[in-house]
C-alpha cells in the first residue's frame, strides 16, 4: 500500500474517493479516528492509500482533476 494524499480537508478526501471509485481503484482512508479525537478542528490530516500497483493510475486520475498528490 502507498500513500496517495494527505489532507485536513474532508471534502478533498471525499472527492478523491469518488474519483478513484469511478476509475475502479480501491482506496482506504486512514487516520480517521485521530481527526475525530482532536475534535474536528483539522489538526491531524487524514490519509488516503491505494495498492502499490494502482498508485500511478490513481495519482494521474487525481492530478487530472486538480488534486495534489503526495510523491
Walk me through this protein's architecture.
Residues 1-64 form the DUF2007 domain. This is DUF2007 domain-containing protein. It comes from Thalassobius vesicularis. The structure is a single chain. By secondary structure, the protein is α+β, with helices and mostly antiparallel strands. It has a single domain, classed as UreE, C-terminal domain (Alpha-Beta Plaits, 2-Layer Sandwich). It is 41% helix and 21% strand. The protein contains three helices and three strands. It has helices at 10-22, 32-37, 55-64, and strands at 2-7, 27-30, 46-50. The chain has a three-stranded antiparallel sheet. The longest helix is centred in the N-terminal third of the chain and has 13 residues, at 10-22. The two termini are 14 Å apart.
Amino acid at each position: 500500500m502507498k500513500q496517495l494524499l494527505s489532507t485536513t480537508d474532508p471534502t478533498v478526501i471525499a472527492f478523491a474517493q469518488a474519483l478513484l471509485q469511478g476509475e475502479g481503484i480501491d482506496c482506504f482512508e486512514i487516520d480517521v479516528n485521530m481527526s475525530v479525537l482532536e475534535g474536528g478542528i483539522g489538526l491531524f490530516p487524514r490519509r488516503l492509500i491505494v495498492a502499490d500497483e494502482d498508485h500511478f493510475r490513481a495519482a494521474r486520475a487525481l492530478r487530472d482533476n486538480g488534486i495534489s498528490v503526495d510523491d
